[in-house]
Every structure is written in C-alpha cells, then in structure tokens.
Design goal:
Layout: H1 2-14, H2 17-31, H3 39-46, H4 51-78, H5 81-101, H6 105-119, H7 122-133, H8 139-167, H9 170-190, H10 206-211, H11 213-229, H12 235-243, H13 248-273, H14 278-296, H15 302-319, H16 322-330
Keywords: Cell membrane, Membrane, Transmembrane, Transmembrane helix, Transport
Subcellular location: Cell membrane
InterPro entries: MFS, MFS_dom, MFS_trans_sf, MFS_Transporters
Length: about 375
C-alpha cells in the first residue's frame, strides 16, 4: 500500500523544474479565466445586445481561435515556444482591458475576433514544451497535471467570476488581464526555450498532416468534441441565465462542479488509465461526455445543470492527458507546435488498429 501510494509522488518528482513553472503559470492563468464563461451574459445584460448579436460575437471569437491554432503552431516552431506563449499572454491581457472599456458593437465584434486569435495561442506552445521537456513515459502524468491545474483554476474562477459579475463585469476583465501577465512572466523567467534546430531534410508542415490519415482522423474527432464543449463557455451561459432564469451566481456554482470533480478525482485515475490502449480510453471518455452534453439540453434548474455537468465531467476525467499524449507520440520534435501531431514525416500512416504503448511511444 505504501509503495502504491508513493508511486505518483515519485513520478511527480521526476518531472523537470521548468515543467512546474509552466504548471504554476497555467494554474494562475486559469484562476483568472472569468471573461469567456460570462461573455454572452455580459453582452446581453451589461451591454444590452440581443442573443443573436452575442452569438455573432462568439462566432467571431471561434473563428479567431481556429485561425490562432494554425498561426501559433507555426510561430511555436519558427520563433520558439517561450516567445509565442509569453507574447500571446501579454497581448491577450491588453485586448481584455480594451474589451472591458468597449461599448460600440463594431469595436466589440472586432475585439472578440482578436481575442479569439490570442487567448488560446498559448496552447500549441504549452503542448510542445511538455513534449520537449518531459520523457515519454511521464507524459500522461504531465499532461494530466496540466489538465488538473486548468480545472482547479476553473473551479475557483467560476465561483469568483459569478460573484464578481454580480458586482460589476469590469472586474472580470481586470482579473483575467492580470493573470495573463503573471503567466507570461513566469514562463519568460523560469522556462527555457526548447525549440529544436530545424531539420532541413525532414518533411513537415501542414502537408505532412494532411497525408497522415491517423492525424487527420484524430483532428476531425477532436474538432467535433471541441465544437460541442465550447458551448459551455459561449451559449450555455446565455441559455441558463436568459432562458432558464438562473442568475450568474447559480450558474457559476453549478459549472464550478466541473473543476471540483476533476481536481478531486483526475489525479487518482490518470496514471491508471494511461496503462491501457490510449485510443480506446479516449473513445470511452468521449462517449461519456456526449451523453452528458445531450442531457444538458433538458436542464432547467441549477440542480439539473449540476447533474449533467457531473456526467460530462466524468468523460473529461477519463480523457485527461490522453489526447496530449497521443499527439506528442505522433509528432516529430520540429513539428510539435505547428502540427500538434504528425506521423507522416516518418514516411507512413498509422492505422487506428495500432496498439499504443501505455505511455506513448519513445523515439
């Protein structure tokens, strides 16, 4: 029993110090993630726009976010992981403050598009840093710990954001901006640049991704899952407050259950699940999430919403760290940012029936 209990702690001690700086910065940043979950509510209640306009603003945000992953991935591989991550966080803070003072429709719509370009631009750089810094056998643990930090911050942010929104929406923009700057400073000071020298003989880029049937299939599945999941921070807040009649505090408390459950249970199961066939574990988690999101359509009270949150959170717990580990295993080092996973440069595609090692593949 002692040996089993000590194993996770021993694995965590093997993780390098720069990873823990990245982990701490991610946690701080997510503690301030208050704007996006309440943007729809902010636009309809504080600025007086219609639900249709709020939907348009969130659509522009989504378009910007989609573009940002491609651009940020290329920047991650070309100019470096640390510069891309820190620069995008500082720029995000500036746009947050500008949006907090914007009142005109055109300005807000433009700001939402730019925010989409910037707010998630750190993701390719963060994933590449983990793949660069952490040994393959420890990647499920590392990605799981990042996922845990994100949801610990999210749980606190949803409760705090609900109360701050009740006091005044401007507080949300200031809190988010400050934590973005802190994240940028931590990474800049404590995380070294890990971008490998470019191999001129290696094939790569998006053409390599498109030739990799496994990566294309994985990307399509991930895109579909993200499309549904992002409704929890875009139109679900509007539906629950404007249609179901919940106030921001009730909605924040119900949604905070997502982070609380992940913080409580995800560290206990991530290492165990990482020993199994990774695509099958991923598929199981996605199926549970799908059931939870389908049930959300029938939620009309805070209690009902909390029950559906608990269901799709169970699916999140199952998939925690698995997707990142699969991508890190597929991607060659010089394309970890731009492709976030591409095996075509090895000269062949991988069938889905391939048996994955428990902790990814080594090079």
């Amino acid at each position: 029993m002692t040996t089993t209990a000590a194993a996770p702690a021993q694995e965590q001690r093997k993780l390098p110090r720069p990873f823990w700086a990245l982990w701490a910065g991610t946690l701080v940043n997510r503690l301030g993630t208050m704007v996006m979950p309440f943007t729809g509510v902010y636009l309809t209640q504080a600025r007086g726009f219609s639900v249709a306009v709020a939907g348009l603003a969130m659509t522009l945000f989504g378009v910007g976010s989609l573009i940002s992953q491609l651009v940020a991935g290329l920047l991650t591989d070309r100019i470096g992981r640390r510069v891309t991550l820190s620069g995008s966080m500082v720029a995000t803070a500036a746009v947050m403050l500008a949006l907090g003072y914007s009142s005109g429709l055109a300005t807000i719509l433009a700001g939402m598009f730019v925010l989409g370009l910037l707010i998630d631009a750190y993701r390719p750089a963060s994933s590449a840093l983990v793949a660069d810094l952490v040994a393959p056998s420890l990647r499920p643990k590392a990605f799981g710990l990042l996922f845990w930090a994100i949801n610990l911050g999210y749980a606190v942010a949803m409760v705090a954001g609900g109360w701050l929104a009740h006091l005044g929406f401007s507080w949300l923009f200031f809190a988010d901006a400050v934590t973005c700057v802190v994240f940028a400073a931590l990474v800049w000071r404590a995380v070294p640049e890990t971008r490998p020298l470019h191999d001129e003989t290696a094939t790569g880029g998006f053409g390599a991704v498109l030739r990799d049937r496994t990566m294309v299939a994985f990307t399509v599945i991930t895109f579909g899952q993200a499309l549904v999941y992002l409704q929890t921070v875009t139109m679900l807040p509007v539906a629950m407050t404007d249609v179901a009649g919940l106030d921001t505090r009730e909605f924040g408390m119900a949604m905070a259950l997502n982070g609380i459950l992940i913080v409580a249970f995800q560290p206990l199961v991530s290492g165990w699940l990482g020993r199994y066939d990774l695509p099958r574990v991923m598929a199981l988690g996605l199926a549970v999430m799908a059931a939870g999101f389908a049930a959300t359509a029938y939620a009309t009270t805070a209690a009902h919403l909390a029950l559906t949150v608990a269901l799709w959170t169970t699916g999140e717990i199952i998939t925690a760290g698995i997707g990142g580990t699969i991508v890190a295993a597929l991607a060659p080092a010089h394309l970890r940012g731009g492709t976030r996973g591409c095996s075509a440069s090895r000269g062949r595609s991988r069938p889905w029936s391939r048996r994955w090692p428990a902790a990814g593949c080594s090079r």
